[in-house]
Specification:
This protein has 165 residues and is of the alpha/beta class. The chain has one domain: Flavodoxin domain (Rossmann fold, 3-Layer(aba) Sandwich). The chain starts with a strand and ends with a helix.
Length: 165
Amino acid sequence: MDILVVAASKHSSTAEIADTIAGELESLGHVVRREPIDAAGIGGADAVVLGSAVYMSRWMAPARDFAERHRAALATLPTWVFSVGLAGAEADEPEKVEARIVEAIDPVGTATFPGRLDPTLLNLRERSVTRLTRAAEGDQRDWDAVKTWARLIDTELSEHLATSG
């Protein structure tokens, strides 16, 4: 199974989650293409995992653009979407953050993961927002949860193929 994994990430936290998902899917026997979201195309993919960091309660523009550009293909392929936000601040389910996109894609599954907050990587505006929301500093990512979700994708993909083929 050829799975495309793409994610929009500003400070690498979401990209590292996408890398972990891709690695776990590879360990389960899938062929995984982990590509930069700006250059990625759907061509040849049998399934897609699409993720984005959440800023100001929205996915990043590259993720929204990718979803719009490939909306028709994503609606026909088994697709999973995930969001990464600050723990306790913006970590809402993708269907709450980007309802229009998620509705158009109709993903098999969704997930939300807490991210990493390193103030030294943030610009003034981002630091101000994190202070206002009282977001916890540090790495809040739960790698076991990320790997568990990747294994769930494997299971759901098998079930999807069994019912559609």
